[in-house]
Amino acid sequence: MSLGSVAPWIVVKCPWIPVLFLVPLCILYDLYCYLRLRVNYFLRWRGGRAGRVHEDKVRRVQEQVHQWIKAGRKTKMCTARPSE
Q: Whole-model pTM?
């Protein structure tokens, strides 16, 4: 028997054998993805520069809105963003 004919036989006749390997493998993969997500979050947003850059952009927009209000709201507010 070659491997090409053994694999379908195992899946059909003994379906619990692939399950014994695939379920733990899926759990380990999910754990890996979760940990990678958490590490990226803490490295980039908590300790990194991305959080500060976002705060600076929000502050800049808030200043523009305050200037628009002080100017008397004579024009409509432009909400278009430049393509950076």
A: 0.49
b/e per residue 27-52 (b: at least 16 CB within 10 A)? eeeeeeeeeeeeeeeeeeeeeeeeee
Asked, for residue 79, whether it belongs to a domain, the answer is no
Q: Is residue 34 part of a domain?
A: yes
List pLDDT tens digits, range 16-49.
888 898 899 999 999 999 999 998 888 877 766 7
DSSP designation for 54: H
Please list, in sequence order, all residues whose beta carbon lies within 8 angstroms of the beta carbon of residue 9, skipping any fewer than 6 positions away: 1
Flag whether 13 is in a domain.
Answer: yes
Q: At what angle do helices 3-13 and 16-41 cross, to 10 degrees?
A: 90
Please check whether residue 33 is in contact with residue 27, taking contact to mean a CB–CB distance below 8 angstroms. Answer: no
Alpha helix stretches (DSSP H) within the chain: 3-13, 16-41, 50-70
